[in-house]
Design brief:
acetate-CoA ligase activity, 32% helix, binds adenosine-5'-triphosphate, binds magnesium ion, 20 helices
């Protein structure tokens, strides 16, 4: 692995604060000294119908923020702007896969949301009812979400790439009254027949009264007795819907986690605390200004889309880009083309998409004008230092800071990241830097004791934060067991991490995936980054299986870069590379070359599947798997070498 300190020097072209970390340190110290006062100040940036009586009611492990306060999420995203000169500002620039564009001003969005809220009301949807949304990445998706929020209904968005079983499980778990869908969506030039999937699912979901269908792709669909067209309903809808004032702790939505480590969990978020966390983190991390064009590439089916496409940028009155389509279709240049076309100033994307683009070399991004960019961000997985450097140099031209944001569906918003809105500090490629103000994160050992710098352990959060999940939908026991049982009184995210001598945090992979080799504990990230630092390797996934002498043996699955073909010589060279960079302890026992790795639909490597294959175990829940062919390929590679 390239040494972090060397890379740290290389990032030095960016103007950083002369006394790096001082301002952040001051804000963070004040925040942790009086957290309730601190968060109450942040909450005052929202619009409230009634201010809270108590900032925090903490009955571990259940936190209720801004108790007694009343507000409405759609008012905070829309009504607050239509009374100002933001009214006619572009809220959403939507771009389709083949380059078609639609724009919506804040006022247009406001109108649509009001009308659709009236539609939902007319169908008997009220406060606390659940609405499942299974839609492509079109503006009607945030419209539907905000309309639910306006009447106090709880939305449950199901990623539109999921099949019938995933939809059935989620709609049943939430006991939804309504499903909102579209005739079809488009991905990689192919039609995805969403309505057909809903039709297949309906016999297994008893709670549904109506299905609302948006005409999007224009494909033929069958309309049954419960099915209603979006455009028919909207035609007669009244233009204004009074917002429902909801309690701060009223559930805003349910969202199921990505399912990287197992069966997805139904995370439930509240309103006042969640929005406060988002408003504050967006200001600190992205430092939105009036001219910004924010491009978050996530799908709204994931939490990043909920928090940083829908709620945070709209609360701030920002202009944002919403893209429907794959990053590499029709060509592996879509994000760069969109940055150039719309003049995006902030790009927030994933390491997995970066590794995909990197595979094609610099020529592609270099053929676009990316000079509008001022800030880059990543989320979703640890970013390999090699990939960070490419992002920094090739995309950001060494002048855009990178915010590596660590957080989870459960945390609601960003927990660890550089905060450019407070100060830009020296960066270390692969480190998420520090907790955002008010977040009390630490790295602890098996017994819950903080570890000294340089020692690996588990990341924990020692006190509640406003974006924290309320619970798991309908399952308080599971909530307690998953997040609060490993360490007394501390939230356990399930990630492995380290704090270095300068206090910077490094995420090393999932705690479940840690390898124990000859008495050493290795995070998957440490090894995978070493593989990816070899010139021929685009992607790596590491797992292990039991070994009598050294505890566990290391197994690596590697995807070569374009133009490199694997051979026994290459395998030998790569093993030598690992021995030289990480050390002999990290020598992989088995190395397999594959064309793709098994990933979740959100692009995260599913190492547990690799482990099951390597250990000959049964493969568990794969409803969130992106492409079944990746498993077959891994199995084949495994068989071939046996
Ligand atoms: P499941 O909990 O169902 O297994 P998931 O954990 O992938 O799914 P998410 O909530 O979407 O579901 O992802 C959160 C996880 O993603 C974090 O716990 C962490 O492992 C990883 N992650 C997110 N951002 C970063 C980051 N910047 N650096 C390192 N890891 C990250
Ligand atoms: Mg998780």
């Amino acid at each position: 692995m390239s040494s972090p300190s060397k890379l740290y020097e290389e990032s030095g072209r960016i103007k950083v604060n002369v006394t790096p970390g001082r301002r952040l340190e001051k804000v963070s110290k004040e925040a942790l000294a009086e957290p309730e006062k601190f968060w109450a100040e942040q909450a005052r940036n929202l619009v409230w119908f009634k201010e809270w009586d108590r900032v925090l009611d903490w009955k571990p492990p259940f936190a209720r923020w801004f108790v007694g306060g009343q507000l409405n999420a759609s008012v905070n995203c829309l009504d607050r702007h239509v009374k100002t000169d933001t009214k006619n500002k572009t809220a959403i620039i939507w771009e389709g896969e083949s380059g078609e564009t639609r724009t919506l001003s804040y006022f247009q969005l406001y109108r649509q949301v009001n009308k659709f809220a009236n539609v939902l009301k007319s169908l008997g949807v009220g406060k606390g009812d659940r609405v499942t949304i299974y839609m492509p990445m079109v503006p009607e998706l945030p419209i539907a979400m905000l309309a639910c929020a306006r009447i106090g209904a709880i939305h449950s968005v199901v990623f539109s790439g999921f099949s019938s079983q995933a939809l059935v499980d989620r709609a049943n778990d939430a006991q939804s009254k309504i499903i909102i869908t579209a005739d079809g969506g488009v991905r990689k030039g192919r039609l995805i027949e969403l309505k057909k999937v809903v039709d297949e699912s309906l016999p297994s979901i008893q709670s549904i009264d109506h299905v609302i269908v948006l005409k999007r792709a224009g494909n033929e669909v069958g309309m049954g007795p419960r099915d209603l067209w979006w455009h028919d309903l909207m035609e007669g809808a009244k233009t204004y819907c009074p917002p429902e004032p909801v309690e701060s702790t009223h559930p805003l939505y349910i969202l199921y986690t990505s399912g990287t480590t197992g069966k997805p969990k139904g995370v439930m978020h509240g309103t006042g605390g969640y929005l406060t966390h988002l408003y504050a983190t967006a200001k600190w991390v992205f430092d939105f200004n009036k001219q910004d064009i924010f491009f978050c590439t996530a799908d709204i089916g994931w939490v990043t889309g909920h928090s940083y496409i829908v709620y945070a940028p709209l609360m701030h009155g920002a202009t944002e880009i919403m893209y429907e389509g794959a990053p590499d279709h029709p060509r592996p240049d879509r994000y760069w083309a969109i940055v150039e076309k719309h003049g995006a100033t902030i790009l927030y994307m994933t390491p997995t998409a970066l590794r995909m683009y990197m595979k094609y070399g610099d020529v592609v991004p270099n053929s676009f004008d990316l000079s509008s960019l001022r800030l880059l961000g990543t989320v979703g997985e640890p970013i390999n230092p090699e990939v960070w450097m490419w992002y920094f140099k090739t995309i950001g031209k060494e002048i855009c800071p990178i915010v590596d944001t660590w957080w989870q569906t459960e945390t609601g918003g960003i927990m660890l990241s550089m905060c450019t809105g407070i100060e830009t500090i020296p960066m270390k490629p692969g480190s998420a830097t520090f907790p955002v103000p008010g977040v009390d994160a630490a790295v602890v050992d098996e017994n819950g004791k903080p570890v000294p710098p340089g020692t690996k352990g588990y990341i924990v959060v020692r006190r509640p934060w406003p974006g924290m999940l309320l619970t798991l939908w309908g399952d308080d026991e599971k909530y307690k067991q998953v997040y609060w049982s490993k360490f007394a009184g501390m939230y356990y995210p399930g990630d492995y991490a380290m704090i270095d001598q300068d206090g910077y945090l490094w995420l090393l992979g999932r705690a479940d995936d840690v390898l124990k080799v000859a008495g050493h504990r290795l995070g998957t990230m440490e090894l995978e980054s070493a593989f990816v630092s070899h010139k021929a390797i685009a992607e790596a996934a590491v797992t292990s299986k039991p070994n009598n002498t050294k505890g566990e043996s290391i197994i690596a699955f590697l995807v070569p870069k374009e133009g490199f073909t694997h051979s026994d010589d290459m395998r030998t060279e790569i093993v030598a590379h690992i021995r030289n960079t990480v050390g002999p302890i990290a020598t992989p026992d088995e190395v397999y070359f594959v064309n793709k790795l098994p990933k979740t639909r959100s692009g995260k490597i599913m190492r547990r599947l690799l482990k099951s294959i390597a250990c000959g175990d049964k493969i568990g829940d794969i409803t969130t798997l992106e492409d079944g062919a990746a498993i077959d390929e891994v199995k084949q590679a495994y068989e071939d070498l046996k």
